[in-house]
């Protein structure tokens, strides 16, 4: 049996893990690590007017929240996703993000109480800044896009290899979005983020978009 966790529908979470408590704990730990800054990030994206990234970040939070059974947080993230995608005003979105921030804080407090010593990793922003080797990264991005389009879990190994080659903050941010989507088993959003990254880096993908040159 799984201990009750206030704010979480653990029956739903366990069911999403095929009944595996060990896998559920693993996903919960990853949630704490990967999503604790999600609402702060969404607030920043709102202020800078990056609507598509805000929508995608909310979508990722919604997906993983549904997976772990954080129903109230899922609903709050869904409202932000819909608002960002439909041109909702900043004030209303700001209120929704504030609501989601409270829901996220509740879930994190519950999980940090249940898991007092989660695995810690250094924040990506504290990594040494450098220049990404795009020539080495290009075949990996193309391979990852191919795997994601096929919903092939082998993409995780490719993403880990990409991590070793990414040296600057903007590329790390793209990679972080992709990893967060993979944590939520959201291959569609991961592929969308990868395509945006490839487009910004000038890396052509065969199926990047409908307007790609043959």
The total count of helices amounts to 10
Shape: globular
Distance between the termini: 55 Å
* Average residue-wise pLDDT: 83
Backbone structural class: mainly alpha
* Strand coverage percent: under 5%
- Counted beta strands: 0
Largest sheet: none
Sequence of secondary-structure elements: HHHHHHHHHH
Helix content estimate: 55-70%
Low-confidence stretches: 118-128, 208-214
If you compute it from the alpha carbons, what radius of gyration comes out, rounded to the nearest whole angstrom? 18 Å
Walk me through this protein's architecture:
With 214 residues, the protein is an all-alpha fold. Helices cover 70% and strands 0% of the residues. Helix 8 packs antiparallel against helix 9. The relative contact order is 0.12.
What structural keywords apply?
214 residues; disordered C terminus; mainly alpha; single chain
How would you sum up this structure in a few lines?
This protein is mostly helical and 214 residues long. The chain has 10 helices and no strands.
Chart the SSEs and their pairings.
Layout: H1 10-16, H2 21-35, H3 38-48, H4 51-68, H5 71-86, H6 90-114, H7 134-149, H8 155-165, H9 169-183, H10 187-201
């Amino acid at each position: 049996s799984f201990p009750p966790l206030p704010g979480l529908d653990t029956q739903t979470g366990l069911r999403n893990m095929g009944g595996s408590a060990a896998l559920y704990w693993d996903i919960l730990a990853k949630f704490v690590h990967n999503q604790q800054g999600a609402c702060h990030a969404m607030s920043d994206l709102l202020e800078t007017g990056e609507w598509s990234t805000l929508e995608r970040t909310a979508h990722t939070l919604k997906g993983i929240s549904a997976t772990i059974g954080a129903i109230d947080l899922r609903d709050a993230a869904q409202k932000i996703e819909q608002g960002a995608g439909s041109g909702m005003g900043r004030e209303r979105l700001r209120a929704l993000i504030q609501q989601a921030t409270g829901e996220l804080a509740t879930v994190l407090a519950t999980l940090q109480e249940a898991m007092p010593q989660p695995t810690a990793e250094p924040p990506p922003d504290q990594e040494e800044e450098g220049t990404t080797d795009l020539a080495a990264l290009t075949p990996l991005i193309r391979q990852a896009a191919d795997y994601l389009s096929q919903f092939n879990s082998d993409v995780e190994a490719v993403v880990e290899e990409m991590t070793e080659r990414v040296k600057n903050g903007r590329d790390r941010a793209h990679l972080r979005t992709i990893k967060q989507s993979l944590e939520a088993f959201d291959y569609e959003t991961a592929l969308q983020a990868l395509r945006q990254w490839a487009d910004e880096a000038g890396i052509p993908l065969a199926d990047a978009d409908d307007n790609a040159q043959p």
